[in-house]
Amino acid sequence: RAPVAILISGRGSNMAALLRAAEAPDCPWRVVLVGANDPDAAGLETARAAGVPTWAHSHKGLNRADYDALVDAAVRAAGAEWIALAGYMRLLSPGFVSAWAGRIVNIHPSLLPLHKGLDTHARAIEAGDVEAGCSVHIVTAELDDGPVIAQARVPVLPGDTPETLAARVLVEEHRLYPKALTELVTR
Ligand code: GAR
Questions:
Q1: What is the pTM of this model?
Q2: Which of 56, 55, 66 is nearest to 32 (CA)?
Q3: Residue of 126, 123, 128 lying closest to 108 (CA atoms)
Q4: Number of other residues whose CB lies within 10 A of the CB of residue 165
Q5: According to the model, what pLDDT value does residue 104 have?
Q6: Which residue numbers belong to the known binding site for (6R)-10-formyltetrahydrofolate?
Q7: Which residues of the chain have pLDDT under 50?
């Protein structure tokens, strides 16, 4: 089973969905580490409760390359061959991305290439989009860029707020991410 490290910054609901999926006997990947750039990230507790090794180190006071070198050492020490970003709200340094080229995957709450960056749901509503959704993509040095592996779509409904739309998309994120990771590691 392909060893995967998951990186988070907060709640970790996508991480939890990946941990649940990894329990299936036929899942072709396993989670060897959950890492966070915030030692107080709520998802760390979820991972510990599930018996998954965790690593946390604040990025504060370190430049991007030096911080990413710590992440690199931690994920390699855990034996990871793939990295899944799950609400990891940090740009990765070009050196880190090239060292892991094609082996870092991210989930983004929009139908890429639409709405890269933050506040995706507010921007989808503002733009009058009739559909929203989420995308799993290979990470490149450009923000929320790189080949899309899978997408899921939901309607934008009259009266939606960023919060109601985010909740509808999040349900799909939790379904999509495990499936896309399976597709990627079995390619
Ligand atoms: C998710 O909606 C994820 O798609 C988004 O942050 C949320 C994290 O929630 N990621 C990004 O916006 C990355 N650019 P979670 O911590 O509960 O998985």
A1: 0.98
A2: 55
A3: 123
A4: 22
A5: 98
A6: 64, 89-92, 106
A7: none
The structure tokens 């939901």 sit at 154
In this prediction, residue 16 carries a pLDDT of: 98
pLDDT tens digits for range 36-89? 999 999 999 999 999 999 999 999 999 999 999 999 999 999 999 999 999 999
* Strand-pair partners of 108: 135
d(CA 179, CA 29): 11
ipTM score of complex: 0.99
Among positive and negative, which fits the CA dihedral 70, 73, 78, 80?
positive
Going through 16-174 in order, the beta strands assigned E by DSSP cover: 29-36, 54-56, 82-85, 104-108, 131-138, 148-155
pLDDT at 163: 98
Cα 162 to Cα 121: distance, rounded to the nearest angstrom: 5
Beta-carbon contacts of residue 87 (< 8 Å; ≥ 6 apart): 8, 9, 10, 11, 12, 13, 14, 15, 43, 107
- The residues annotated with a catalytic role in the active site are 108
Helix (H), strand (E) at residue 164: helix 162-185
Closest ligand 1 atom to Cα of 12? 16
- Separation of 13 CA from ligand 1 center, angstroms? 8
Q: Cβ(132)–Cβ(156) under 8 Å?
A: yes
